[in-house]
């Protein structure tokens, strides 16, 4: 049976029609307890969902949907190591990576937990040695810069965390990131660096990701050309992979290869050895605090009732906005420049996890799954795309993410930042009617200026608040979104842990690369043939 046939889903359709012409702000007057059930706090994260078009009756139907989709069993399944990724026959035990030994359940085997503990210690030892200057380059020089080479889940999470927390945890070793196969990305990072004092971490679960390996190959050439010998390579490279034999074949010392398990998905992997760059950037103590914050959110997710469970609540509100109110896109707008990479990280987390159309029953969905997730950092975003959000014809829901305090920034800056965030959240909800606008400034009698200035409001938005940005609060925030994503996948009856949609593009890219090298001739559509021919003419200098 499709999820659309559930009694709760049917009831939610009725609620959506009932609330269609309701103003969000009017719901505060109707229900004095609105803030009590639509604002929740856990693990240093406060979530205000009251600026959404949901009332008590529709809220109760959302909770009924959670019951009918058996979320209690789904939560137990992921923590107990059950196979939740059936297309690859794997569990998804990223929560084990931040688990504490004293509360490991029987299902989370001590063998797996022992492996996690051993890898944590390897990360700590390597990070400490790097930051204390004990790891030296081929010439004996102290390493000053570490470059993480990866892409997707091997890049986005680690880069986002390092950028968010590095100012609070300054280290002697600079940490940089390269992901794009465009050579200008690698060039931009390497230009100010010196080969003698630069170290590379190649992060690829399969160690056959084409973009990562090409960047790693170019980086290795940069090292060996400087030292005039291949012998320099092991002194300047480490790898994070589930295929150590491939890293060894590349020339990396086995002592500098850190394993990642098959039961850790790429976009959930920053808590694993993929977090080595994080540990170097903010220190191993900072990395452990990040894990602790995520672990505490895990415990909240496992134990809180549905109506008090903020990952579940965020997931349900997202389902409501997407499937019943017709929101086609979802904006992530952090009002803290340290979180500037968070929208891209969440874009991958949600869209790669839940951008699916086939259910776990092998049928096409008859409902929408994940909306387009996008965003940018406030206040810059206000001067870029907020015009569309206020007056455009496409419906967008928004998550505002607000950090209340910043000890290293002036209070005047923080006051203005907070004021802008709260103002945008309120104005998206309230809007401004034309009859409240003064038309005395009309540039011409042919223009109805109030009509152009009117904003309809009733744009649903959620505000997610933390007092300060610490490793603990960031860890909790990221775990919150992980669990939200998983719960939405359960409700939509899809597999949140595979990504088969990206495979065809990889296959075709490999085929085109072989064609460009002259080893075969591919079969393409006329458009692709013409574009390839144009590229070859430019590449080969043919007029």
**Annotated CATH homologous superfamily of the largest domain:** Glucose-6-phosphate isomerase like protein, domain 1
What is the global morphology? globular
> Largest sheet, if any?
6 strands, mixed
Looking at the overall shape, the CATH architecture of the largest domain is: 3-Layer(aba) Sandwich
**CATH top level label of the largest domain:** Alpha Beta
Strand order of the largest sheet: 1-2-11-10-8-9
Radius of gyration: 25 Å
CATH topology category name of the largest domain: Rossmann fold
Number of helices: 19
Domain count = 3
| Topology, number of strands | 11
User: Average pLDDT, to the nearest integer?
Assistant: 94
Give the helix proportion (percent range): 40-55%
Residue fraction in strands: 5-15%
Specify the structural class.
alpha/beta
Give, in order, the helices and strands. Answer: HHHEEHHHEHEHEHEHEHHEHEHEHHEHHH
Parts with pLDDT < 50 across at least 5 consecutive residues = none
Give the N-to-C terminal Cα separation: 61 Å
Kindly describe this structure:
Helix content is 46%, strand content 11%. Helix 13 links the parallel strand 8 and strand 9. By secondary structure, it is α/β, with parallel strands linked by helices. The chain is globular, with a radius of gyration of 25 Å. The strands form two sheets. A six-stranded mixed β-sheet has the order 1-2-11-10-8-9. The chain has a five-stranded parallel β-sheet with strand order 4-3-5-6-7, with helices on both faces.
């Amino acid at each position: 049976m499709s999820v659309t046939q559930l009694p709760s889903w049917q009831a939610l359709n009725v609620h959506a029609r009932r609330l269609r012409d309701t103003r969000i702000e009017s719901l505060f007057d109707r229900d004095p307890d609105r803030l009590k059930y639509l604002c929740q706090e856990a693990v240093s994260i406060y979530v205000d969902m009251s600026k959404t078009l949901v009332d008590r009756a529709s809220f109760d139907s959302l909770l009924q949907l959670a019951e009918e989709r058996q979320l209690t069993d789904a939560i137990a399944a992921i923590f107990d190591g059950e196979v939740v990724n059936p297309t690859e026959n794997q569990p998804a035990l990223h929560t084990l990576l931040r688990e504490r030994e004293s509360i490991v359940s029987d299902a989370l085997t001590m063998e797996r937990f022992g492996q996690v503990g051993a890898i944590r210690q390897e990360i700590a030892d390597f990070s400490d040695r790097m930051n204390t200057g004990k790891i030296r380059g081929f010439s004996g020089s102290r390493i000053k810069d570490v470059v993480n080479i990866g892409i997707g889940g091997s890049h986005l999470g680690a880069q986002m965390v390092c950028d968010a927390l590095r100012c609070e945890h300054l280290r002697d070793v600079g940490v940089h990131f390269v992901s794009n196969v465009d050579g200008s990305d690698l060039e931009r990072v390497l230009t100010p660096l010196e080969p003698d004092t630069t170290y590379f971490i190649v992060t690829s679960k399969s160690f056959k990701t084409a973009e990562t390996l090409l960047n790693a190959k170019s980086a290795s050439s940069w090292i060996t050309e400087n030292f005039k010998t291949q012998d320099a390579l092991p002194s300047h490279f480490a790898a994070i992979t589930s295929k150590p034999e491939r890293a060894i074949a590349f020339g990396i010392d086995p002592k500098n290869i850190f394993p990642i398990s098959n039961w850790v998905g790429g976009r959930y992997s920053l808590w694993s050895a993929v977090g080595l760059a994080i540990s170097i950037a903010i220190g191993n103590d900072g990395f452990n605090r990040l894990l602790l914050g995520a672990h505490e959110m895990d415990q909240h997710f496992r134990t809180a009732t549905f109506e008090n469970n903020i990952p579940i609540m965020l997931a349900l509100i997202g389902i409501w906005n997407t499937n019943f109110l017709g929101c086609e896109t979802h904006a992530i707008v952090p009002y803290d420049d340290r979180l500037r990479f968070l929208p891209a990280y969440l874009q991958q987390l949600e869209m790669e996890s839940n951008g699916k159309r086939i259910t776990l029953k092998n049928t096409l969905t008859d409902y929408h799954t994940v909306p387009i997730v996008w965003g940018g950092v406030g206040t810059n975003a206000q001067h870029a795309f907020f015009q569309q959000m206020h007056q455009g014809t496409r419906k967008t829901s928004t998550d505002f993410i607000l950090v209340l305090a910043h000890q290293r920034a002036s209070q005047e800056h923080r006051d203005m930042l907070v004021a802008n965030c709260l103002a945008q959240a309120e104005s998206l909800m309230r809007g401004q009617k034309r009859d409240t606008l003064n038309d005395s400034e009309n540039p011409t009698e042919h223009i109805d200026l109030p009509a152009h200035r009117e904003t309809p409001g009733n744009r649903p938005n959620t505000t997610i608040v933390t007092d300060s940005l610490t490793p603990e609060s960031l860890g909790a925030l990221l775990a919150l979104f992980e669990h939200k994503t998983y719960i939405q996948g359960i409700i939509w009856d899809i597999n949140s842990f595979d990504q088969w949609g990206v495979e065809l593009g990889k296959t075709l890219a490999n085929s085109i690369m072989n064609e460009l090298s002259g080893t075969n001739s591919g079969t393409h559509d006329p458009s692709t043939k013409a574009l390839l021919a144009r590229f070859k003419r430019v590449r080969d200098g043919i007029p």
